[in-house]
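Lab meeting, action items carried over

1. Structure of the two-component assembly. Owner: GW. Status: complete.
Input record:
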Amino acid sequence: MSELFVILIGTALVNNFVLVQFLGLCPFMGVSNKLESAVGMSAATTFVLTLASAASYVVYHGLLVPLEVTYLRTISFIVVIAAVVQFTEVMVRYMSPLLHQVLGIFLPLITTNCAVLGVALLSLNRELSFFHTTLYGFGAALGFSLILVLFAALRERLSGADIPKPFQGAAIAMVTASLMSLAFLGFSGLVQL
Amino acid sequence: MLESNALISLLSAIAVLAGLGVSFGALLGFVGERFKVKGNPLVEKIDALLPQTQCGQCGYPGCRPYAEAINEGDAINKCPPGGETTIAELADLLGREPAPLDGEAQAEERVAFIREDECIGCTKCIQACPVDAIIGTAKLMHTVIEDECTGCDLCVAPCPVDCIDMLPRSTPLTQWQPVVNAAAADLIASDRVEEPPHVARL
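Predicted assembly:
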């Protein structure tokens, strides 16, 4: 039980994929303008990450290892992720057309979110079991969602602040992101993975 | 021997990738068919909020085209029959800012009013009314049910004797009205002007 907790905390906070490992920065900057779309993006990414890490595990251990073609893991994972993202897009359009419109191009772009591929490959290196891999993906998604929502909330506040002209827009966002990253480094040492 | 090994590994690599592609493709095709979305469901939702008077005051031929235009990004404040309620509901649905009703017009809400002694009972305005707010029958006087009227203007044009006016909606008795001191109100000649038409109606 404590092992599960360690994996969850370890991926969500200590080795946070966005602020500590610097993966998945594209949606982190791109979809964090509005809190609402950030929440939608977080939900979609959580779904994709969890499902993709489980599916990658199945493909790797069920197909690539028996056929001795493990060197194909990167490209097969990309295929898996692309399929899961397409599946998510169909489901989002079916369940919430408004969210589909708000997320727009960023929904298919989850495919190129390197955090998704990163999670699949990193969990492979750790030689985790199927359940732990899924949990690892879920923890990573949780960390990603936390950061995205926090950052979107910060940026919404910042949009109303009186910022000196040279710092407006992307510049202040970068400064904010780096400060958040510093804060998250404070978690290192909390859990040894 | 080495060559046949290499051939087998090459073939298995091709088989794995092709198999993955085909099976995921089939799965996605099935899911796409199963959860197919007919038309644009957002347009349906917007259309359901519009009053369906088909009055055309928004500049589109009806409520459905306006719903499609809203979906494309048109303003949500062009529907006088819907009024503030519809704007608020649309803003809520689409996550946009509610804006005051568009138009030269609509500083105050207006409703149709038939000057009853001039009405000839032609029923043309009854046929034009999209919300059945006009009562009356052939060769008898018609009148507008004020609570039902949406102020859409459509009855004004068909009237052959031009006896329909668009007047401000009268304040219901349940609503607070400023008290005018009657004694002070007509001290001087200019106070004793004609009553405004909506007071005469009451």
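2. GW to write a short summary for the group page. Key points so far: Chain B has a mean pLDDT of 80. The helical segments of chain B are 2-34, 41-49, 63-72, 83-94, 124-128, 182-185, 197-200.
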